[in-house]
Amino acid sequence: MAQDTVQQAPAAPATPARTLLPLILPALVVGVGASLLFVGVSAAAGKLQDVLWQDLPDALGIGRYSVLWMLVVLTATGVAVGLVVWKVPGHAGPDPATTGLDAPVLPPAVLPGLVLATGLMLAGGPSLGPENPIIAVNVGLAFWLGSRLLPRVPGGLWPALAEAATIGALFGTPVAAALLISEALAGKQLKGALWDNVFAPLVAAAAGALTTALVARPTFDLHLPAIGRPGWGDLLAVLVVASAAALLGMVAVYAFPYVHGAFARLGHPMLALPAGGLVLGLLAALGGHLTLFKGLDEVGELARSPEGWSAGEFATMAVVKLAALLVAASCGFRGGRIFPAVFVGVALGLGAHALVPAVHPAVGVAAGVLGMLLAITRQGWVSLFTAAVLVASPAILALLCIASLPAWLLVTGRPQMQLRKDGTPVV
């Protein structure tokens, strides 16, 4: 009589502690350095933003967010970034439409131009976040310095440390980095146990997060009303809103190669970027000043008054912000897509609450962010984490896990919001 047996894969051999211990100090240094670079670029961009959007218009007697001023500043930002891409050595790195969170190791000569282009973008108002270029800069610096100062450390470790450190610094917690690392390692043949492989990156992520928390004290909690015990209505709401957000996000994903191709046909950064800035100015005139910038501060303003706008106004802001993200990512501005996508999801969730008051604002926001990030980033764990941390309610986790299933079915296997060098979408 045959016996059913379950074949278990042999456990990966554990890495000796003496192998991991020497990695702690390099990981700590990379974590602190990555955080300080992120905080420094953000602070410098914030100072320039105050000059562009407060001091100058006040001195000229022009409304800070008048249509004329938004058109002028965004077009001028396109000109400034276009000059950097055109003239500065390294041309501010590769086409940002072809890059994601997994950054290539760029030559050191490229990094100053990339930092400058990122700072100008953050200050000028295009709808992109700092994550992609800051990760790329930290990866390049960590690899270049680490390979020279500690040549015995495997070269492939430096990019992993820098990516984890920057993600930890961006979100103010190493949890996001841990989730991203575990997702990246899925399906790979690991040399050793999982926790041995993530040990040094987690040290870097923790150092980056703690440094950011001490220096900048970021917060993602929107302080929305807490939900109690979830009910059937909450389950229905989270399923509908997350799926609707994923579908809306996929509209932008499918449009991405066509919009990128339209700007690419202009043939020169001094044409594509100013044209993109002008379009962004027109979109800002339609959606209002809250649709400018990376969106994190603006999300807080929306959440402070969930009843302050109608469902139609929330929908307008969501669509305009998504269009602005699409244009900014297509025309050559250096930046990431996570933070503006969060704004779109929050606006959708609050719009659902305004349309159907029975939809709890925290449920709507978390579901909207989850669905939008799944479509834009295709990072499941990061999408779940970001959606959950915005509302800081343990009761939301079960709802989000359930809502992620239909939303994931809508996006998986389809094109991503990232292009290959030949302009075709990554699937």
Structural account:
Helices cover 68% and strands 0% of the residues. Residues 1-9 have low confidence and may be disordered. It is built from 16 helices and no strands. The chain has helices at 17-20, 24-60, 67-87, 111-124, 131-149, 157-171, 174-185, 194-215, 232-264, 269-287, 296-304, 311-331, 338-355, 361-377, 380-391, 396-411. The protein is mainly α and 427 residues long. The longest helix is centred in the N-terminal third of the chain and has 37 residues, at 24-60.
Topology record:
Elements: H1 17-20, H2 24-60, H3 67-87, H4 111-124, H5 131-149, H6 157-171, H7 174-185, H8 194-215, H9 232-264, H10 269-287, H11 296-304, H12 311-331, H13 338-355, H14 361-377, H15 380-391, H16 396-411
Helix pairs in contact: 2-4, 2-5, 2-6, 2-8, 3-4, 3-10, 4-5, 5-6, 6-7, 6-8, 7-8, 7-15, 9-12, 9-14, 9-16, 10-12, 11-13, 12-13, 13-14, 14-15, 14-16, 15-16
Output the keywords.
single chain; Cl-channel_core; 16 helices; globular; 427 residues; transmembrane helix; transmembrane; mainly alpha; 0% strand; ClC-type_chloride_channel
The residue ranges in which pLDDT falls below 50 over 5 or more consecutive positions are: 1-9
Largest sheet: none
Number of helices: 16
Helix content: 55-70%
Termini separation (Å)? 47 Å
Radius of gyration: 22 Å
Shape estimate: globular
Structural class: mainly alpha
Beta content: under 5%
Number of strands: 0
Summed over residues and divided by their number, the pLDDT gives a mean of: 88
Order of helices and strands: HHHHHHHHHHHHHHHH
